[in-house]
Amino acid sequence: MEKRAKEVGDIIKNSKQIHIVSHIDADGLTAGSIAYKTLERLGKDFSIEFVKQLDEDVIKNIKDKNYELVWFTDLGSSVSTSYTDINMIITDHHECPENSNKFFHLNPHLFNIDGGFEISGAGTTYLVSKAIDRENMDLSALAIVGACGDIQDRKYGKLMGLNRDILMDGKKLEVIDPKIDIRYFGRETRPVYKLLQYANDPVIPGITGRESSCITFLQEIGIKLKDGDSWRRWIDLTKNERSLIISNIAQTLLVKGFGYKITKKIIGEVYILEKEEEGTEVHDAKEFATLLNSTARYDKFDVGLKVCLGDRDKYLKKAKNLLLGHRANLVEGLQFAREEGIVKREYLQFFHAGNGIRDTIFGIVTNMLINSEDVDSNIPLIGFAFRDDGQVKASARGTEELVEKGLNLSAAMKKAASSLNGMGGGHNIAAGATIPKGKEEEFLDLLEEEIKNQLRL
Ligand code: C5P
Ligand code: C5P
Ligand code: ZN
After folding, report:
1. H-type helices in 284-436, by residue range?
2. Are residues 157 and 201 in the same domain?
Protein backbone atom coordinates (compact mmCIF):
# COMPACT_ATOMS: atom_id res chain seq x y z
CA MET A 1 0.00 0.00 0.00
CA GLU A 2 2.89 2.31 0.74
CA LYS A 3 4.13 1.96 -2.82
CA ARG A 4 0.66 2.67 -4.23
CA ALA A 5 0.30 5.64 -1.89
CA LYS A 6 3.52 7.03 -3.29
CA GLU A 7 2.35 6.50 -6.88
CA VAL A 8 -0.90 8.30 -6.15
CA GLY A 9 1.07 11.05 -4.43
CA ASP A 10 3.22 11.47 -7.54
CA ILE A 11 0.12 12.00 -9.67
CA ILE A 12 -0.89 14.80 -7.32
CA LYS A 13 2.55 16.39 -7.38
CA ASN A 14 2.47 16.36 -11.20
CA SER A 15 -0.94 18.06 -11.43
CA LYS A 16 -1.64 21.75 -11.23
CA GLN A 17 -5.36 21.87 -10.59
CA ILE A 18 -7.21 19.31 -8.48
CA HIS A 19 -10.83 18.89 -7.44
CA ILE A 20 -11.59 16.89 -4.28
CA VAL A 21 -14.88 14.96 -4.03
CA SER A 22 -15.71 13.45 -0.66
CA HIS A 23 -18.49 11.87 1.38
CA ILE A 24 -20.83 13.74 3.78
CA ASP A 25 -20.13 11.74 6.94
CA ALA A 26 -17.40 12.25 9.56
CA ASP A 27 -14.97 9.98 7.73
CA GLY A 28 -15.66 11.80 4.47
CA LEU A 29 -15.21 15.22 6.06
CA THR A 30 -11.91 14.27 7.68
CA ALA A 31 -10.72 12.54 4.48
CA GLY A 32 -11.61 15.63 2.44
CA SER A 33 -9.89 17.87 4.99
CA ILE A 34 -6.68 15.82 4.89
CA ALA A 35 -6.70 16.12 1.08
CA TYR A 36 -7.47 19.84 1.40
CA LYS A 37 -4.55 20.49 3.78
CA THR A 38 -2.21 18.41 1.65
CA LEU A 39 -2.98 20.41 -1.50
CA GLU A 40 -2.92 23.71 0.35
CA ARG A 41 0.55 22.92 1.71
CA LEU A 42 1.70 22.01 -1.80
CA GLY A 43 0.41 25.37 -3.04
CA LYS A 44 -1.91 23.74 -5.59
CA ASP A 45 -4.92 25.30 -7.24
CA PHE A 46 -7.79 23.22 -5.83
CA SER A 47 -11.48 22.99 -4.95
CA ILE A 48 -13.62 20.64 -2.86
CA GLU A 49 -17.18 19.30 -2.75
CA PHE A 50 -19.07 16.84 -0.53
CA VAL A 51 -21.71 14.47 -1.87
CA LYS A 52 -24.18 11.94 -0.47
CA GLN A 53 -23.15 9.36 -3.03
CA LEU A 54 -21.55 9.10 -6.45
CA ASP A 55 -24.65 8.92 -8.62
CA GLU A 56 -24.99 9.80 -12.28
CA ASP A 57 -25.89 13.45 -11.61
CA VAL A 58 -22.77 13.97 -9.54
CA ILE A 59 -20.61 12.27 -12.17
CA LYS A 60 -22.15 14.32 -14.98
CA ASN A 61 -21.48 17.52 -13.09
CA ILE A 62 -17.86 16.50 -12.51
CA LYS A 63 -17.40 15.68 -16.20
CA ASP A 64 -18.90 19.01 -17.27
CA LYS A 65 -16.33 20.88 -15.20
CA ASN A 66 -13.39 19.25 -17.00
CA TYR A 67 -11.06 19.24 -14.01
CA GLU A 68 -7.46 18.40 -14.70
CA LEU A 69 -7.51 15.84 -11.86
CA VAL A 70 -10.34 14.62 -9.58
CA TRP A 71 -9.42 13.22 -6.15
CA PHE A 72 -12.15 10.99 -4.70
CA THR A 73 -11.84 10.45 -0.94
CA ASP A 74 -13.91 8.00 1.17
CA LEU A 75 -15.78 7.11 -2.00
CA GLY A 76 -14.93 6.42 -5.63
CA SER A 77 -13.94 2.76 -5.52
CA SER A 78 -17.32 1.91 -7.05
CA VAL A 79 -16.49 3.98 -10.16
CA SER A 80 -12.82 3.01 -10.39
CA THR A 81 -13.42 0.86 -13.45
CA SER A 82 -15.97 3.07 -15.19
CA TYR A 83 -15.72 6.67 -16.43
CA THR A 84 -12.27 6.33 -17.97
CA ASP A 85 -12.80 9.84 -19.32
CA ILE A 86 -12.28 11.33 -15.85
CA ASN A 87 -8.67 11.74 -14.83
CA MET A 88 -8.96 10.51 -11.27
CA ILE A 89 -7.23 9.28 -8.16
CA ILE A 90 -9.09 7.43 -5.42
CA THR A 91 -8.36 7.00 -1.72
CA ASP A 92 -11.25 4.93 -0.39
CA HIS A 93 -11.97 1.91 1.84
CA HIS A 94 -15.28 0.53 0.58
CA GLU A 95 -15.42 -2.93 -0.99
CA CYS A 96 -14.05 -2.83 -4.56
CA PRO A 97 -15.40 -4.10 -7.86
CA GLU A 98 -13.35 -6.79 -9.57
CA ASN A 99 -10.49 -5.57 -11.82
CA SER A 100 -10.23 -2.30 -9.95
CA ASN A 101 -6.59 -2.75 -9.00
CA LYS A 102 -5.33 0.31 -10.89
CA PHE A 103 -2.26 2.48 -10.31
CA PHE A 104 -4.41 5.51 -9.33
CA HIS A 105 -6.58 3.60 -6.86
CA LEU A 106 -5.61 3.20 -3.20
CA ASN A 107 -7.97 0.92 -1.27
CA PRO A 108 -7.11 -1.61 1.49
CA HIS A 109 -9.26 -4.33 -0.13
CA LEU A 110 -6.87 -4.37 -3.10
CA PHE A 111 -4.17 -5.45 -0.65
CA ASN A 112 -6.22 -7.99 1.31
CA ILE A 113 -6.78 -5.57 4.16
CA ASP A 114 -10.29 -5.17 5.59
CA GLY A 115 -11.55 -1.64 4.99
CA GLY A 116 -14.34 -2.28 7.47
CA PHE A 117 -12.10 -1.88 10.50
CA GLU A 118 -8.39 -1.72 9.62
CA ILE A 119 -8.40 1.66 7.89
CA SER A 120 -10.96 4.33 6.99
CA GLY A 121 -11.34 6.70 4.06
CA ALA A 122 -9.53 9.37 6.06
CA GLY A 123 -6.76 6.87 6.87
CA THR A 124 -6.28 5.90 3.23
CA THR A 125 -6.13 9.58 2.29
CA TYR A 126 -3.64 10.14 5.10
CA LEU A 127 -1.31 7.47 3.67
CA VAL A 128 -1.07 9.46 0.43
CA SER A 129 -0.62 12.71 2.32
CA LYS A 130 2.22 11.19 4.36
CA ALA A 131 3.80 9.73 1.22
CA ILE A 132 3.85 13.22 -0.29
CA ASP A 133 5.45 14.81 2.75
CA ARG A 134 6.19 13.41 6.19
CA GLU A 135 5.44 16.87 7.57
CA ASN A 136 1.79 15.93 6.99
CA MET A 137 1.94 13.41 9.82
CA ASP A 138 0.15 15.91 12.06
CA LEU A 139 -2.96 15.08 10.00
CA SER A 140 -3.01 11.62 11.63
CA ALA A 141 -5.33 13.08 14.30
CA LEU A 142 -7.99 13.72 11.64
CA ALA A 143 -7.49 10.21 10.29
CA ILE A 144 -8.23 8.79 13.76
CA VAL A 145 -11.38 10.92 14.01
CA GLY A 146 -12.46 9.50 10.63
CA ALA A 147 -11.86 5.91 11.76
CA CYS A 148 -13.89 6.54 14.93
CA GLY A 149 -16.64 8.12 12.82
CA ASP A 150 -16.94 4.84 10.93
CA ILE A 151 -16.91 2.95 14.27
CA GLN A 152 -13.78 1.07 13.29
CA ASP A 153 -12.84 0.67 16.96
CA ARG A 154 -15.91 -1.43 17.66
CA LYS A 155 -14.61 -4.87 16.68
CA TYR A 156 -11.78 -4.96 19.24
CA GLY A 157 -12.67 -2.05 21.50
CA LYS A 158 -9.68 -0.26 20.00
CA LEU A 159 -8.27 0.59 16.59
CA MET A 160 -6.30 -2.17 14.89
CA GLY A 161 -4.35 -2.81 11.69
CA LEU A 162 -3.20 0.20 9.69
CA ASN A 163 -5.28 2.43 11.97
CA ARG A 164 -2.85 1.49 14.73
CA ASP A 165 0.15 2.58 12.64
CA ILE A 166 -1.56 5.91 12.01
CA LEU A 167 -2.29 6.17 15.72
CA MET A 168 1.41 5.66 16.47
CA ASP A 169 2.30 8.48 14.05
CA GLY A 170 -0.06 10.74 15.96
CA LYS A 171 1.27 9.61 19.30
CA LYS A 172 4.83 10.31 18.25
CA LEU A 173 3.87 13.82 17.20
CA GLU A 174 1.79 14.29 20.35
CA VAL A 175 -1.37 15.14 18.44
CA ILE A 176 -3.29 12.11 19.65
CA ASP A 177 -3.17 10.07 22.84
CA PRO A 178 -4.85 6.68 23.29
CA LYS A 179 -6.20 6.04 26.78
CA ILE A 180 -8.07 3.15 28.39
CA ASP A 181 -11.43 4.36 29.65
CA ILE A 182 -15.18 3.85 29.41
CA ARG A 183 -16.16 3.53 25.74
CA TYR A 184 -19.57 5.14 26.01
CA PHE A 185 -20.14 8.33 24.10
CA GLY A 186 -19.85 11.74 25.72
CA ARG A 187 -17.00 11.48 28.23
CA GLU A 188 -15.93 15.07 27.73
CA THR A 189 -19.11 17.06 27.36
CA ARG A 190 -22.15 15.19 28.66
CA PRO A 191 -23.46 14.99 32.24
CA VAL A 192 -22.65 11.48 33.56
CA TYR A 193 -26.30 10.47 33.80
CA LYS A 194 -26.73 11.40 30.10
CA LEU A 195 -23.75 9.26 29.17
CA LEU A 196 -25.57 6.34 30.81
CA GLN A 197 -28.94 7.26 29.36
CA TYR A 198 -27.58 7.00 25.82
CA ALA A 199 -25.28 4.04 26.54
CA ASN A 200 -25.43 1.69 23.61
CA ASP A 201 -23.08 -1.11 22.56
CA PRO A 202 -23.76 -2.65 24.96
CA VAL A 203 -27.01 -1.22 26.29
CA ILE A 204 -27.37 -1.40 30.05
CA PRO A 205 -30.70 -3.09 30.82
CA GLY A 206 -32.92 -1.02 33.09
CA ILE A 207 -30.67 2.03 32.66
CA THR A 208 -30.18 2.89 28.97
CA GLY A 209 -33.00 5.09 27.74
CA ARG A 210 -34.33 5.84 31.23
CA GLU A 211 -33.29 9.17 32.61
CA SER A 212 -34.64 8.72 36.12
CA SER A 213 -33.10 5.24 36.45
CA CYS A 214 -29.71 6.66 35.47
CA ILE A 215 -29.96 9.29 38.17
CA THR A 216 -31.08 6.77 40.81
CA PHE A 217 -28.34 4.33 39.79
CA LEU A 218 -25.67 7.00 40.31
CA GLN A 219 -27.18 8.26 43.58
CA GLU A 220 -27.43 4.76 45.01
CA ILE A 221 -23.72 4.14 44.56
CA GLY A 222 -22.93 7.51 46.08
CA ILE A 223 -21.93 9.57 43.05
CA LYS A 224 -22.56 13.29 43.44
CA LEU A 225 -24.39 14.43 40.28
CA LYS A 226 -23.66 18.15 40.44
CA ASP A 227 -20.84 20.46 41.35
CA GLY A 228 -22.65 23.62 42.41
CA ASP A 229 -24.92 24.40 39.50
CA SER A 230 -23.20 22.35 36.86
CA TRP A 231 -23.70 18.70 36.03
CA ARG A 232 -20.58 16.63 36.52
CA ARG A 233 -19.21 15.00 33.40
CA TRP A 234 -17.20 11.78 33.19
CA ILE A 235 -13.97 13.79 33.06
CA ASP A 236 -14.94 15.59 36.29
CA LEU A 237 -15.13 12.35 38.29
CA THR A 238 -12.31 10.98 40.40
CA LYS A 239 -10.60 7.77 39.40
CA ASN A 240 -12.36 5.92 42.21
CA GLU A 241 -15.76 7.20 41.16
CA ARG A 242 -15.14 6.07 37.59
CA SER A 243 -14.07 2.59 38.70
CA LEU A 244 -17.11 2.33 40.94
CA ILE A 245 -19.46 3.15 38.07
CA ILE A 246 -17.71 0.78 35.68
CA SER A 247 -17.80 -2.13 38.13
CA ASN A 248 -21.48 -1.51 38.86
CA ILE A 249 -22.35 -1.45 35.16
CA ALA A 250 -20.36 -4.67 34.66
CA GLN A 251 -22.20 -6.28 37.53
CA THR A 252 -25.58 -5.23 36.13
CA LEU A 253 -24.71 -6.72 32.75
CA LEU A 254 -23.40 -9.99 34.20
CA VAL A 255 -26.43 -10.40 36.46
CA LYS A 256 -28.69 -9.89 33.44
CA GLY A 257 -26.92 -12.74 31.69
CA PHE A 258 -24.66 -10.78 29.30
CA GLY A 259 -21.46 -12.77 28.93
CA TYR A 260 -17.92 -11.64 29.62
CA LYS A 261 -17.31 -10.83 25.94
CA ILE A 262 -20.08 -8.24 25.83
CA THR A 263 -19.45 -6.92 29.32
CA LYS A 264 -15.81 -6.16 28.63
CA LYS A 265 -16.83 -3.92 25.72
CA ILE A 266 -17.65 -1.14 28.19
CA ILE A 267 -13.96 -0.37 28.54
CA GLY A 268 -11.45 0.06 25.76
CA GLU A 269 -9.37 2.67 24.04
CA VAL A 270 -10.49 6.24 23.67
CA TYR A 271 -8.57 8.81 21.66
CA ILE A 272 -7.68 12.24 22.97
CA LEU A 273 -6.73 15.06 20.60
CA GLU A 274 -3.96 16.50 22.68
CA LYS A 275 -3.78 19.91 21.07
CA GLU A 276 -7.46 20.60 21.77
CA GLU A 277 -9.04 22.06 24.88
CA GLU A 278 -10.30 19.59 27.47
CA GLY A 279 -14.07 19.41 27.90
CA THR A 280 -14.81 20.38 24.30
CA GLU A 281 -16.36 18.26 21.54
CA VAL A 282 -13.07 18.23 19.64
CA HIS A 283 -10.95 16.81 22.48
CA ASP A 284 -12.31 13.25 22.13
CA ALA A 285 -12.19 11.55 18.71
CA LYS A 286 -15.66 10.01 19.01
CA GLU A 287 -17.29 13.24 20.08
CA PHE A 288 -15.43 15.09 17.32
CA ALA A 289 -16.83 12.60 14.79
CA THR A 290 -20.38 13.08 16.03
CA LEU A 291 -19.94 16.84 15.84
CA LEU A 292 -18.93 16.42 12.19
CA ASN A 293 -21.88 14.13 11.52
CA SER A 294 -24.11 17.04 12.60
CA THR A 295 -22.84 19.24 9.76
CA ALA A 296 -22.49 17.86 6.22
CA ARG A 297 -25.38 15.42 6.71
CA TYR A 298 -27.51 18.59 7.00
CA ASP A 299 -25.89 20.26 3.99
CA LYS A 300 -23.60 22.38 6.19
CA PHE A 301 -20.39 21.16 4.57
CA ASP A 302 -18.53 24.38 5.18
CA VAL A 303 -19.06 24.14 8.95
CA GLY A 304 -17.61 20.62 9.24
CA LEU A 305 -14.77 21.43 6.89
CA LYS A 306 -13.80 24.63 8.73
CA VAL A 307 -13.79 22.81 12.07
CA CYS A 308 -11.53 20.08 10.61
CA LEU A 309 -9.24 22.75 9.19
CA GLY A 310 -8.87 24.25 12.66
CA ASP A 311 -11.53 26.92 13.23
CA ARG A 312 -12.27 26.93 16.97
CA ASP A 313 -14.30 30.10 16.94
CA LYS A 314 -17.30 30.94 14.80
CA TYR A 315 -17.56 27.60 13.01
CA LEU A 316 -17.08 25.47 16.11
CA LYS A 317 -19.96 27.41 17.64
CA LYS A 318 -22.09 26.78 14.56
CA ALA A 319 -21.23 23.10 14.68
CA LYS A 320 -22.23 22.89 18.35
CA ASN A 321 -25.60 24.38 17.48
CA LEU A 322 -26.08 21.88 14.69
CA LEU A 323 -25.18 19.11 17.15
CA LEU A 324 -28.20 19.99 19.30
CA GLY A 325 -30.49 19.52 16.32
CA HIS A 326 -28.72 16.32 15.26
CA ARG A 327 -29.13 14.78 18.72
CA ALA A 328 -32.82 15.63 18.77
CA ASN A 329 -33.24 14.12 15.30
CA LEU A 330 -31.56 10.87 16.34
CA VAL A 331 -33.77 10.52 19.42
CA GLU A 332 -36.84 11.28 17.32
CA GLY A 333 -35.67 8.90 14.56
CA LEU A 334 -35.18 6.03 17.01
CA GLN A 335 -38.58 6.67 18.51
CA PHE A 336 -40.15 6.76 15.08
CA ALA A 337 -38.56 3.48 13.94
CA ARG A 338 -39.71 1.76 17.13
CA GLU A 339 -43.27 2.99 16.65
CA GLU A 340 -43.31 1.80 13.06
CA GLY A 341 -42.26 -1.60 14.35
CA ILE A 342 -39.58 -4.02 13.28
CA VAL A 343 -40.82 -6.95 11.21
CA LYS A 344 -38.96 -10.23 11.57
CA ARG A 345 -38.36 -12.70 8.78
CA GLU A 346 -36.26 -15.83 8.95
CA TYR A 347 -32.90 -14.38 7.89
CA LEU A 348 -33.45 -10.66 8.36
CA GLN A 349 -35.61 -8.09 10.08
CA PHE A 350 -36.70 -4.74 8.69
CA PHE A 351 -38.61 -1.52 9.26
CA HIS A 352 -39.85 1.15 6.88
CA ALA A 353 -39.47 4.75 8.00
CA GLY A 354 -41.16 6.25 4.93
CA ASN A 355 -40.73 10.01 5.16
CA GLY A 356 -40.25 9.87 8.93
CA ILE A 357 -36.44 9.97 9.07
CA ARG A 358 -34.05 12.13 7.04
CA ASP A 359 -32.21 9.85 4.61
CA THR A 360 -28.78 11.27 5.51
CA ILE A 361 -29.00 10.22 9.18
CA PHE A 362 -30.99 7.10 8.54
CA GLY A 363 -27.88 4.87 8.55
CA ILE A 364 -26.94 6.13 12.03
CA VAL A 365 -30.43 5.35 13.35
CA THR A 366 -30.30 1.82 11.89
CA ASN A 367 -26.89 1.41 13.47
CA MET A 368 -28.14 2.47 16.90
CA LEU A 369 -31.11 0.14 16.59
CA ILE A 370 -29.11 -3.02 15.86
CA ASN A 371 -27.36 -2.54 19.21
CA SER A 372 -30.54 -1.87 21.13
CA GLU A 373 -32.50 -4.15 23.42
CA ASP A 374 -35.60 -4.50 21.30
CA VAL A 375 -33.79 -5.79 18.21
CA ASP A 376 -32.72 -9.41 17.65
CA SER A 377 -28.95 -9.37 17.15
CA ASN A 378 -28.94 -12.82 15.52
CA ILE A 379 -30.15 -11.56 12.14
CA PRO A 380 -29.25 -8.38 10.20
CA LEU A 381 -31.46 -5.30 10.35
CA ILE A 382 -32.57 -3.52 7.19
CA GLY A 383 -34.18 -0.08 7.25
CA PHE A 384 -35.99 1.67 4.39
CA ALA A 385 -36.62 5.39 4.04
CA PHE A 386 -37.85 7.55 1.17
CA ARG A 387 -35.27 9.81 -0.43
CA ASP A 388 -36.20 13.22 -1.73
CA ASP A 389 -35.59 12.09 -5.33
CA GLY A 390 -38.46 9.58 -5.24
CA GLN A 391 -36.27 6.53 -4.70
CA VAL A 392 -35.91 4.39 -1.59
CA LYS A 393 -32.81 4.28 0.56
CA ALA A 394 -31.93 1.06 2.34
CA SER A 395 -29.45 0.72 5.21
CA ALA A 396 -28.32 -2.67 6.46
CA ARG A 397 -26.45 -3.42 9.66
CA GLY A 398 -25.05 -6.67 11.03
CA THR A 399 -22.89 -7.75 13.97
CA GLU A 400 -19.35 -9.07 14.30
CA GLU A 401 -20.75 -12.51 15.15
CA LEU A 402 -22.73 -12.61 11.89
CA VAL A 403 -19.71 -11.47 9.87
CA GLU A 404 -17.71 -14.29 11.44
CA LYS A 405 -20.41 -16.68 10.19
CA GLY A 406 -20.01 -15.42 6.63
CA LEU A 407 -22.31 -12.40 6.39
CA ASN A 408 -21.25 -9.84 3.77
CA LEU A 409 -23.89 -7.14 3.60
CA SER A 410 -21.98 -5.20 0.95
CA ALA A 411 -22.10 -8.10 -1.51
CA ALA A 412 -25.70 -8.98 -0.65
CA MET A 413 -27.02 -5.42 -0.93
CA LYS A 414 -25.10 -4.83 -4.14
CA LYS A 415 -26.46 -7.97 -5.76
CA ALA A 416 -30.06 -7.49 -4.63
CA ALA A 417 -30.09 -3.82 -5.63
CA SER A 418 -28.48 -4.48 -9.03
CA SER A 419 -31.24 -6.99 -9.91
CA LEU A 420 -33.74 -4.14 -9.46
CA ASN A 421 -31.73 -1.51 -11.31
CA GLY A 422 -30.59 0.03 -8.08
CA MET A 423 -27.12 0.37 -6.60
CA GLY A 424 -25.60 -0.78 -3.36
CA GLY A 425 -22.37 -1.52 -1.53
CA GLY A 426 -20.33 -0.70 1.56
CA HIS A 427 -18.74 -3.05 4.08
CA ASN A 428 -19.46 -6.58 5.27
CA ILE A 429 -20.93 -5.32 8.55
CA ALA A 430 -22.69 -2.21 7.24
CA ALA A 431 -23.97 -1.48 3.75
CA GLY A 432 -26.45 0.69 1.92
CA ALA A 433 -28.45 0.73 -1.28
CA THR A 434 -30.81 2.83 -3.36
CA ILE A 435 -33.72 1.08 -5.07
CA PRO A 436 -36.86 2.15 -6.96
CA LYS A 437 -39.94 2.91 -4.88
CA GLY A 438 -42.40 0.02 -4.60
CA LYS A 439 -39.68 -2.61 -4.94
CA GLU A 440 -39.04 -2.99 -1.21
CA GLU A 441 -40.75 -6.39 -0.86
CA GLU A 442 -38.99 -7.82 -3.89
CA PHE A 443 -35.71 -6.42 -2.62
CA LEU A 444 -36.18 -8.12 0.75
CA ASP A 445 -36.84 -11.46 -0.95
CA LEU A 446 -33.67 -11.19 -3.01
CA LEU A 447 -31.63 -9.97 -0.07
CA GLU A 448 -32.89 -12.68 2.26
CA GLU A 449 -31.91 -15.33 -0.26
CA GLU A 450 -28.38 -13.87 -0.48
CA ILE A 451 -27.99 -13.65 3.27
CA LYS A 452 -29.29 -17.18 3.71
CA ASN A 453 -26.68 -18.47 1.25
CA GLN A 454 -23.87 -16.51 2.89
CA LEU A 455 -24.68 -17.80 6.35
CA ARG A 456 -25.00 -21.38 5.14
CA LEU A 457 -21.54 -21.57 3.59
O1 C5P B 1 -19.57 5.27 4.28
P2 C5P B 1 -18.74 4.77 5.35
O3 C5P B 1 -17.71 3.78 5.02
O4 C5P B 1 -18.09 5.99 5.88
O5 C5P B 1 -19.61 4.24 6.55
C6 C5P B 1 -19.26 3.12 7.31
C7 C5P B 1 -20.48 2.69 8.05
O8 C5P B 1 -20.23 1.44 8.66
C9 C5P B 1 -20.87 3.65 9.16
O10 C5P B 1 -22.22 3.97 9.04
C11 C5P B 1 -20.64 2.85 10.43
O12 C5P B 1 -21.59 3.16 11.38
C13 C5P B 1 -20.75 1.42 9.98
N14 C5P B 1 -20.00 0.45 10.80
C15 C5P B 1 -20.67 -0.32 11.72
N16 C5P B 1 -20.01 -1.21 12.52
C17 C5P B 1 -18.68 -1.37 12.40
C18 C5P B 1 -17.97 -0.61 11.47
C19 C5P B 1 -18.68 0.31 10.66
O20 C5P B 1 -21.88 -0.19 11.83
N21 C5P B 1 -18.07 -2.26 13.18
O1 C5P C 1 -25.99 4.92 4.18
P2 C5P C 1 -25.49 3.92 5.11
O3 C5P C 1 -24.89 4.51 6.35
O4 C5P C 1 -26.44 2.83 5.44
O5 C5P C 1 -24.29 3.21 4.36
C6 C5P C 1 -23.55 2.14 4.91
C7 C5P C 1 -22.30 1.93 4.11
O8 C5P C 1 -22.63 1.54 2.76
C9 C5P C 1 -21.48 3.19 3.95
O10 C5P C 1 -20.15 2.80 3.99
C11 C5P C 1 -21.85 3.70 2.58
O12 C5P C 1 -20.85 4.48 2.00
C13 C5P C 1 -22.05 2.42 1.82
N14 C5P C 1 -22.96 2.55 0.64
C15 C5P C 1 -22.50 2.19 -0.61
N16 C5P C 1 -23.33 2.27 -1.70
C17 C5P C 1 -24.62 2.69 -1.57
C18 C5P C 1 -25.09 3.06 -0.31
C19 C5P C 1 -24.23 2.97 0.80
O20 C5P C 1 -21.34 1.81 -0.76
N21 C5P C 1 -25.41 2.75 -2.63
ZN1 ZN D 1 -15.72 5.81 5.39
Report:
1. 285-293, 301-309, 314-340, 362-370, 400-404, 409-419
2. no
